[in-house]
Specification:
With 396 residues, this protein is mainly alpha-helical. The chain has a domain of 115 residues. Strands 3-4-5 form a three-stranded antiparallel beta sheet. Strands 12-13-14 form a three-stranded antiparallel beta sheet. Strand 1 and strand 2 form a beta hairpin. Helix 3 packs across helix 4 and helix 6 packs across helix 9.
């Protein structure tokens, strides 16, 4: 092994507990109206007070997770409850659909068009239930999860702006996140449902969205699972594909599917080979599978979540399979990530770099970046590294 898992485990743990958590504890709570501020500048000052539901939910889940899986600190549970109480009061419409955004006081701003608000609400209240044991938290998690399944084939519903039937596409994001969400809510759901759903999702993610010729994951396909030659159909989202693979690995462990784990690891390696910027380093944000110009003007930016999720997948890939290529790539991505994203002069990490790896936006939180990928990634890497350490001890 070329890495020192003990030293790395301490690095990830210390960064989480000593830097990231204190930043959000200090700067994000809205003591007057509840919920969290997520639009925070480099110093942690609030620059916008709108509240985005999926970021509110992600932070509830994150602090509930810390309480459940790191240490039962009362201040962490209190932080989770600040967001949960705000969400219970203002976060959803009368039918239980979760809005996209609210103003500071909780007045709805954007309709519940985005099913990922619901996904993270279910995830948040499921983890919170594990911390509190309060039935209403479990009820919200189950009800929301059932609503997600009911909307699965038409996620945007009446808010879909596309002309019906003109070019129907199935998007990768929902099956990807359902792989993780089903495991997150496992204790609240019927065991048979979790087994059947996750088995179907593995087939969908690793079959329908898998592009045989390239060994890569497509972001959009036809409803029948075929390639569609248009901007959306040619789109690759390397971060999504790589993040999904550690979800798939966890599901495959549940099902005892070593073959699926091996395929997931190979997909991570294939995606990195395709999407790594050979000139400046880092992983491209968007790509076109035929090499055409992507429609996203931000295609060559380097984003925090893409690199952090890659670190998780590479460590899990090595832990589950022992594939040495995962460690080679881990060292490369680890160096880039820790060189570029942590702020040397302030707490929390930068999120947005240009292609050359220079800070593009100095914010620490905004409409899309909140208390989630950095702390979750640090936590996951810390824990997987601990598992690698334990495996090394028993194999001596």
């Amino acid at each position: 092994m070329t890495i020192d898992p003990i030293k790395l485990s301490e690095q990830y743990r210390n960064e989480l507990l000593g830097n990231i958590i204190p930043f959000w504890m200090e700067h994000s709570p809205d003591e007057q109206y509840g919920g969290y501020f997520t639009c925070l500048d480099r110093a942690g000052n609030v620059f916008d007070t709108d509240k985005f539901i999926w970021l509110q939910c992600r932070q509830v889940w994150m602090f509930s997770t810390f309480y459940n899986k790191v240490e039962k600190r009362a201040e962490w549970l209190d932080m989770a409850l600040i967001g949960a109480q705000f969400l219970q009061r203002y976060g959803s419409d009368n039918e239980g659909n979760w809005y996209f955004s609210l103003d500071r006081k909780g007045t709805p701003l954007v309709q519940p068009y985005n099913i990922f608000s619901d996904c993270f609400a279910a995830m948040a209240f499921g983890e919170l239930f594990s911390a509190t044991g309060e039935d209403n938290h479990a009820v919200i998690a189950r009800r929301t999860f059932n609503n997600i399944l009911a909307r699965r084939n038409n996620p945007k519903g009446k808010y879909n702006k596309l002309v019906p039937g003109s070019r129907p596409l199935k998007n990768f994001s929902l099956p990807m996140i359902l792989c993780n969400l089903a495991l997150e809510l496992e204790e609240l759901l019927d065991n048979k449902l979790v087994d059947e759903l996750t088995s179907d999702l593995v087939d969908e993610v690793m079959g329908d969205f898998y592009h045989q010729d390239s060994g890569l994951i497509l972001e959009n396909i036809s409803p029948e699972g075929s390639f569609v030659d248009c901007f959306e159909g040619r789109l690759l989202n390397p971060g999504h594909a790589i993040e999904a693979m550690w979800f798939i690995m966890d599901v495959a462990v549940r099902h005892g599917r070593g073959d699926v784990i091996e395929k997931a690891v190979q997909l991570v390696l294939n995606t990195l080979e395709y999407s790594w910027d050979q000139k400046y380093g880092g992983i491209y944000y968007f790509m076109d599978i035929k090499g055409h110009p992507p429609q996203q003007l931000e295609w060559d930016q380097k984003l925090w979540w893409v690199h952090i999720e890659t670190l998780i997948s590479l460590l899990k890939g090595y832990y589950y399979t022992g594939n040495g290529k995962c460690l080679v790539w881990f060292e490369k991505v680890h160096k880039y990530t820790w060189d570029k994203f942590p702020d040397p002069d302030a707490r929390e990490w930068f999120g947005y770099l240009n292609r050359r790896g220079e800070v593009l936006l100095p914010l620490k939180g905004g409409k899309w970046k909140g208390c989630f990928h950095v702390p979750r990634g640090l936590f996951q890497c810390w824990k997987v590294l601990e598992s690698i350490i334990e495996t090394d001890k028993t194999s001596r």
